Amino acid sequence: TRAFGMIAEHLLRPDGGVTFASGVLAGWLMGLLSWLLASAKDTMSRIVIVWMITTGIGLAGLHHCIVGTVEVVAGVLVDPALTWSQYGGFLLWATLGNTVGGTLFVAIIKYGHAVKSR
Known about the structure:
Blueprint: H1 2-12, H2 16-39, H3 43-60, H4 65-78, H5 84-117
Helix pairs in contact: 1-4, 2-3, 2-5, 4-5
């Protein structure tokens, strides 16, 4: 059970600004994932794309609101040193970062496509 707490602590340790910036990068990568999946034609390519992006987010230790929720809630449930308010702060900053990163990526791609189409 201590392992769950250690994983959660890794995500809860940074302050809000770091979590937000990390979330922006994770959101950007997830936005990239959606565009790459739309352009991939066969199933194997899609599987490889999903694996590459999600593995990259995990190995880089980036903050993603969905995956992080699983990790932090597990830690809060088993480690009395972790609190629900810490989880709330994590969720707030990670979700905001993911939203900004994903939105900016999609907006830039669509803008580039619109300008190129003129």
